[in-house]
Amino acid sequence: MTTARGEEPAIIANARLTGSERTDPFGSEPVDVHLADGLVVDIAPAGALPRHGAVLDADGGWVIPGLWDHHVHVVQWALAAQRVPLGEATSAAHAAAIMADAPVLPDGRSVGTGFRDALWPDEPSLELLDAATGLVPTYLINADVHSVWLNSAALRREGFQPDGAGVLREEPAFEVSRRLNAVEPGTADPLVARMAEDAATRGVVGLVDLDMAWNEEAWARRLAAGFDALRVSFGIYPEFLDRAIAEGLQTGDRARGADSDLVRVGPLKVITDGSLGTRTAACSHPYAGDPHNHGLLTVDLANLVDLMTRATGAGIASAIHAIGDVANSHALEAFAATGAWGTIEHAQLVAHADIPRFARLGVGASVQPEHAIDDRDVTDALWRDQTAQPYPLRALADSGATLFFGSDAPVSALDPWAAMAAAVFRVRDGREAWQPHERVEAATALAASTRGGSTTPARVEPGDPADLAVCERDPLTADAAQLRAMRVSATLLGGRLTHLA
Questions:
Q1: Which SS3 state, helix, strand or coil, does residue 365 take?
Q2: Cα–Cα distance, 347 to 281 (Å, whole number)
Q3: Which residues, 6+ apart, have CB-to-CB distance to 122 below 8 Å?
Q4: Phi, psi (5° rounding) for residue 493?
Q5: Closest by alpha carbon to 348, among 306, 262, 299, 406?
Q6: φ and ψ at 12, to 5 degrees?
Q7: Which residues does residue 15 pair with via DSSP β-bridges, in sequence order?
Q8: Does residue 450 contact residue 483 with C-beta atoms inside 8 Å?
Q9: Are the C-beta atoms of residues 385 and 347 closer than 8 Å to each other?
């Protein structure tokens, strides 16, 4: 029997196995992976056991555990399909000119996303953007989402007083993003479904959704409408923590009001500092060329300890956004003080003395390797006076910390192969490797891209969930270009095909 998307093959035939810490005896020899009831039930040499039921012919491809993206802003990433890309803008004037011709969405706004202004030769200004966009409310979202540039019409629409720049940072910027993301389910949910299907083509079986909203109801609605492409763990922000505790939500629980168990409660998400691109990440030394700017802590240590204590007592894990070294130190202090479990999100600049604390405290490092490549020039320019380690991967891995890879989409694309390539080779676009001493082994990168992270990765073994992908090359031997172009021929979620090329 042949197979099709949505079906549950009984066998993945003529496959090869790969991955970290393998215990099977098959080496590179072809095998049949036998599946039943959503699990891997046996692995045998190709053709050694009878092939009953539907067969998915891997044709010599490599079977790997299904991939996870551990940091996604789902609705914002899905809505990027409707927004004007600004990643190629080389100046404020260039970005404004792009938005001059931007389409107007049904709600009357024009929205662009993905600009990176840290090294622009000019600065955003209200006069410049107004001249290009006129009376159409126009919004430009920074690639790091920590700042937005609005014209006068947009500022008035959102209730902000126009100033000389039109740039909002941190919480005011997040509030604008929340409003832009609050579209009707009839618009957002089909885009989310399309996003999930696209992720499945890359071998993705799950993600952590950190949208700035009360996410449980939205996911229950999507499941009721037939969403079945991914597993999802959704975050809870501080403004919703009291509600989550009062309603008895605990990390790992299935979403209420849903028949499926694909969606589960995730961690408390707390943003404790800003970002590199917006020059607000909290750092021990000032930003180059800006001697009074050390960034800022948006949640002080006492409040962070209080939030994490309440979450931990209620059975909710913590995911703490910390980019600068000061923020990372504070986050680690809070984990130590509260006994909380979970992750530090980003960990982009970490004091050398703090690196081993991740492993000692059992705190995972939820990192986005593509950010290192995106930000290499900004890092070299703005953080050149910092003494902490930027984008530590190898150092964290060598210390015994668990790495969890993600994209922070829409900050970078939801593509685990790009993340793995960035982590293993620290290179893109033909340039020399950046800080090559922080490369990790391919096996570590693959493990960090699975549900359990680098120290307890998902495996392809009897008894394990049949969350699997079949890819054309062995990820452990592929070069950087091959990883970025990796073709996935099939993805299975609980033994059911969510993608078939």
A1: strand
A2: 11
A3: 91, 92, 93, 128
A4: -120, 110
A5: 406
A6: -100, 110
A7: 31
A8: no
A9: no
Closest residue by Cα to residue 475 from 452, 444, 497: 444
> Residue 480 belongs to what H/E stretch?
helix 480-484
Burial of 247 (0-12, 13-18, 19+ CB in 10 A): exposed
Find, among 276, 146, 159, the residue nearest to 212 by Cα.
Answer: 146
Q: 100: closest CA among 86, 90, 87, 114?
A: 86
Give the whole-angstrom CA distance, residue 365 versus residue 398. Answer: 13
Name residue 5's beta-bridge partners: none
For 460, residues 6+ apart whose C-beta sits below 8 A from its C-beta are: 17, 19, 33, 40, 43, 63, 64, 65, 468
The whole-model pTM stands at 0.96
Q: Cα separation of 403 and 413, whole Å?
A: 19
Looking at the DSSP assignment, which residues form a beta bridge with residue 173? Answer: none
Q: How far apart are CA 500 and CA 497, in angstroms?
A: 7
- Going residue by residue through the chain (501 aa), what tens digit of pLDDT does each one get? 557 889 999 999 999 999 877 889 999 999 999 999 999 999 999 999 999 999 999 999 999 999 999 999 999 999 999 999 999 999 999 999 999 999 999 999 999 999 999 999 999 999 999 999 999 999 999 999 999 999 999 999 999 988 889 999 999 999 999 999 999 999 999 999 999 999 999 999 999 999 999 999 999 999 999 999 999 999 999 999 999 999 999 999 999 988 799 999 999 999 999 999 999 999 999 999 999 999 999 999 999 999 999 999 999 999 999 999 999 999 999 999 999 999 999 999 999 999 999 999 999 999 999 999 999 999 999 999 999 999 999 999 999 999 999 999 999 999 999 999 999 999 999 999 999 999 999 999 999 999 999 999 999 999 999 999 999 999 999 999 999 999 999 999 999 999 999
For residue 136, which phi and psi values (nearest 5 degrees)?
A: -80, 120
Determine the Cα–Cα distance for residues 321 and 327; give it in Å rounded to an integer: 8
